[in-house]
Amino acid sequence: MVSSVLLHPWALWVVLGVVLVALVLGWFARAAKQEKRQVTWVANAGYLPDLPSFKSRLSRYRVFLLCLAVVLFGSSIATGFLVARPVDREVRSEELATRDIVLCLDVSGSMIEYDTEIVQRFLELLPSFHGERIALSIYNSTSRTVFPLTDDYTLVEEQLTEAAEALDFDVDSLDDYSYDAAALDRLLQFLAGTEGLGQDASSLVGDGLATCALAFDLEDEERSRSIIMATDNEVFGEPLYTLPEAADLVAERDITLHGFYAGAVTPDSAAQQKEYQDAVEAHGGLFYASDDPDAVSGIVDEISAQQAAELDADADVIITDRPEKYFAALMGLIGLYLLAVWRLRA
């Protein structure tokens, strides 16, 4: 993650303190000098302060003095920031840069709210990624790859934003016809390609997971490969792969499966959750169950932290000096100072 910081923040206050001391000493030195100065009195000059031209020049003189004070203050701050050394501090881990993550999301109606939270959390995590590749695959009765594994974070942000907006839909509004038509169209467009087997099949979890397992490339490279899958494991229809079979396929391809279960309580839900949990934990993955969509953010964070720990990713800190804006400000203020001095002498 890149953050802009001052490498020596104390230097800013030192510079401002030096300038303040210099101003105080200059003030007293000027006052002492004025006391020793001989005054020359001019007769019949009492009318001068009432002349419009005199008032105009005096007002202009005071304005330029005020400008000089502002420029001096601004120059002091700019100099202080330069001495404090503004830098970009980037924490980067070469190990984490070899991480591939496929988001494998069940987009049946009961899962949309949870999918929204997962996508939004990854959007928030995106600025902390450096080199990791991310993919998004969604499935219901059939699967669709929203975008393949990539470290093009501009594309990832664009696609995840579109996904979050499309999934942010109140499915319950369909029951009373209170839904927003435009929002429904956006959702249906996003889900296109995930219902290829019609209404008789839904949440074919094994097939969806098997498709996600095939999303990884660069098989000759040593990389950390993981799938984060969200489903309620409520299968309708006949899949080609059962969930345990798909989990075995994932393990054979040296991919770690992490599971998130969000099923409603039904007569079959306990068995569905157990099958899902057994399939995930049998191959060393992390399994979480929650009926609260707000818990998703913490779960995603835990998975990311666990992966970082397993990779033993010692972070490298890269410091890049960024004096540009403060240097430009200082040059501009010096230019204003010279202009004001020239006008005062004119």
Question: Could you walk me through the main structural features you see in this protein, from its secondary elements to its overall organization?
Answer:
The structure is a single chain. With 346 residues, this protein is of the alpha/beta class. The chain folds into 2 domains: 2-31 and 50-88 and 322-345, no CATH class; 96-314, 3-Layer(aba) Sandwich (Rossmann fold). 49% of the residues lie in helices and 17% in strands. A 6-stranded mixed sheet has the order 5-4-3-6-7-8, sandwiched between helices. Helix 1 runs antiparallel to helix 2. It is elongated and about 115 Å long. The two termini are 53 Å apart. The model has no long low-confidence stretch (mean pLDDT 80).
User: With helices defined by DSSP (H or I, 4 residues minimum), what is the helix count?
Assistant: 10
Helix content: 40-55%
Which CATH class of the largest domain applies here? Alpha Beta
Compute the number of strand runs: 9
Rg:
33 Å
The total domain count is 2
Low-confidence stretches: none
Numbering strands along the chain, what is their spatial order in the largest sheet?
5-4-3-6-7-8
- Could you give me the name of the CATH homologous superfamily of the largest domain? von Willebrand factor, type A domain
Main β sheet profile: 6 strands, mixed
Main structural class: alpha/beta
Determine the mean pLDDT.
80
CATH topology of the largest domain: Rossmann fold
Distance between the termini: 53 Å
Q: Could you tell me the strand content as a percent range?
A: 15-25%
The helix/strand order is: EHHEEHEEHHHEHEHEHEH
Shape: elongated
Q: Which CATH-level-2 architecture of the largest domain?
A: 3-Layer(aba) Sandwich
Oligomer: single chain
Organism: Ruania alba
Keywords: Membrane, Transmembrane, Transmembrane helix
Domain VWFA: 100-303
Transmembrane segments: 6-28, 63-84, 326-344
